[in-house]
Amino acid sequence: MREGLPGTIYRRDYAAPEFAVTTVDLLVQISPGRTEVTATLDMVRQGSGQGGLKLDGEQLSLQWIELNGERLTEDDYTASDTELSVASVPDRFTLRTCVTICPEENTSLEGFYRSQSAYCTQCEAEGFRKITYFPDRPDVLAVYTVTLEADRAECPVLLSNGNKISEEDLDSGRHRVVWHDPFPKPSYLFAMVAGDLKPVSDVFTTCSGRVVDLNIWVEEKDLGYCDYAMSALKAAMRWDEQVYGLEYDLDLYNIVAVDDFNMGAMENKGLNVFNTSCVLAHPDITTDMGFQRVEAVVAHEYFHNYSGNRVTCRDWFQLSLKEGFTVFRDSEFSADMNSRGVKRVEDALFLRTHQFAEDAGPLAHPVRPDAFVDISNFYTLTVYEKGAEVVRMLHTLLGAEAFHAGTSLYFERFDGQAVTCDDFVDCLAEASGRDLEQFRRWYEQAGTPEVVFSEHYDADTRRYQLTLQQHNPAASAQQENEPLVIPVATGLLVDGQPLSVGDGTTRVLELTEREQTFTFEDVPSKPVLSCLRGFSAPVRATVHHTEADLLILMAADDDAFVAWDAAQTLLARAIEAAEVDTDTNLPQGLLEACEQVLMGSMDPAMKALTLALPSEEYLADRAAQQGLVNVSQIHHQRRQVKASLGGALETVWQKVLSDNSAPLAYSPHADDIGLRALRHLAQDYLLAANPAQLDAAHNLFERADNLTDRLAALRWITHYEQLESREAALADFYAQWQHEALVVNQWLTVQATRPGTDCVESVRALMTHPAFDWRNPNKLRALIGAFAGGNPIAFHRSDGAGYRLMSEVIERLQASNPQIAARMLAPMTRWRRYAVGQETMRAELERLAAIDPLPKDVFEVLNRALTEPA
């Protein structure tokens, strides 16, 4: 491994930009193989410095440069691979540059690039420098006017930020459209799209009576797939008015869907660019989970209009200022649109399965990082999901009224500015009157805190005492972490009933020291502790619950998260206690509790979540807390418990299917989604117990009228059927749906996640299939990402074949799309925690690290994986 990191950037070194840009005029002339960009920047020196001008620029071919109307010679400036420097400039000036770029050859999908029938942009975080020379940082805000020119036949649609000002025809079949965005914005929010697209249009009337034109631009073949996203957009616009008092500020809101996109979507002001997977939705091409993702992502990007666009980040260390806050906002929106309890459990499940693992590995970092080599490596679960939980804790501690008073102050005070996480917390502190100094440590400290619960009950005094201890493991290169402010929502159950503990059945304990004791008076008998209700803090809870305690919580707790968590703990304990290759007899109490859930009145979606076995990834994280992870043991233990639970409750699962008949017509409504999830869970358990009984799967595969059912059936056939029947079903599916890219992605994932060590060879074969495309991030995630992240028994094959496959993929991608390559490295970075395969995985990482040169984002991940302790 090469020593040191290239160009590490530290938060402590932040300095305000030396020059402000007041206005930007862009002329973009698009032609096949050559796009010319002429940029006119009105600039003003800030402060008393007398230095020259430095602008960011990468992969640009400079044609000429003018300063205040005079053409500069090569003696007046220096252009390198990353920067344009002008030695001497006045305090106020106009700079014009002309560059050429080739979007057709841009495989990184950053900057301006070609995706299928359209040209589009992705500028966050540092893509604008691949379009023109500019101080490409988020604290430089300017007003943009953009003129786009292209061939009308090839690119009849020309879009950019803001409102359309004019359009006209030019000679030689070309045309021109001018756009103007009146709101100052940083360069990462710039967008332009040119191509042969068609709109699905609607209008939204704001709370003040303004009419906003809404368009979702897609390829003509996808026009029938946009209605759900449009309804989600309108619902999000109304919700933001009602909950936050925020009204949309332009006359037009455009969304463009493209197939080739590194991220899920991008909130560019007035012109969102979406991955097709996050905007197209129809029962034939979208699963239930896909519909929910479309609703959430459409809302997320819209909510950024204020939390990210109108108020943006001072520097990229503050990324969670916009992302954590906006994830919290979209989570609350989804909870209001669907089931609040189900949504909270889903969020907790995702965080505990994935973000906790990130926090425990070499890529751990604070919600607000202190240093980075490449900011693209910090678009992480910690910044987004844990950042959202930090905001949620503020909401819990302050209460809804004070929280919203603080956010209103934040939007009012900092409108049109680039600010920090501290500025956000300052507004909440000011509006609520609370001292939040200690709370800021959540932004500063990496790692997942552990809260240990100890109980004492005195029957004579009817007093219950609860002692909480917090342990905050220090991340790499940090001193011992200081105590955090942890809101611990707590309840007590007595005789199987929630006890009143003040204002209702929940009391929020504020843990601020390493150890504190809290007292509950007038508790009639020894209670069962209901802790971390609503998953009130992103912490690991160590509670010494007996099996009897957990059964009571599972059956009687009125908090959805605690009841679910109790069931998951019981199931995890059963899996961990199972002996491989022997019959597994599950505790009778657990079987009875599962039957009670299935036959009870609980929401079907919550039933499905409650009784779904903990994933192998989550079980691995539990095992890693105690020692090394044995992937094979976990896989076989879990498989045995699944078969045992399926067999022991066979008649109950059959009754679930008969009592919960499938809806007559497909709907993505939450109730129907829950019903399908429960039916699929029942069938999954029955197949685990009787793998040969595949008639129901084949019948569903033949008659399904939606992708959710069709894909579930294909998954069962692929996972349980003999080779010939499996291949026949896969071939039939592909033949029918090969022209629907999003469905083909699901087809790839079904095969990539088939349990079995021979899946490595299947994935290799699929990498040469016509359905796979190395340039398309969706295809890469669907096949390679799903294999490495969702098929542990195959990826961690004892001969290292899974690691070698992944290493070869990374070696190829680092040259074409380094951002995707860096992200796909994540499963290999936690190599130290595995009992088998450590050395093989490390050897593959070292082989990759020896490649010279390496893109800085890939280098950074490899360096941390090999040098940071786990």
Radius of gyration: 28 Å
- Assign the CATH class of the domain at 1-195: Mainly Beta
Unreliable parts: none
- CATH superfamily label of the domain at 1-195: tricorn interacting facor f3 domain
What does this structure look like?
The chain has a domain at 1-195: Immunoglobulin-like (Sandwich), CATH 2.60.40.1730. It has 870 residues and is α+β, with helices and mostly antiparallel strands. The protein is globular, with a radius of gyration of 28 Å. Helices cover 41% and strands 22% of the residues. The longest helix has 20 residues, at 340-359. The chain starts with 8 loop residues before the first strand and ends with a helix. The mean pLDDT is 97. The strands form eight sheets. The chain has an eight-stranded mixed β-sheet, with no helix packed on it. It has a five-stranded mixed β-sheet with strand order 17-18-19-21-20, covered by helices on one side. Helix 3 runs antiparallel to helix 4, helix 9 (547-556) runs antiparallel to helix 10 and helix 18 runs antiparallel to helix 19.
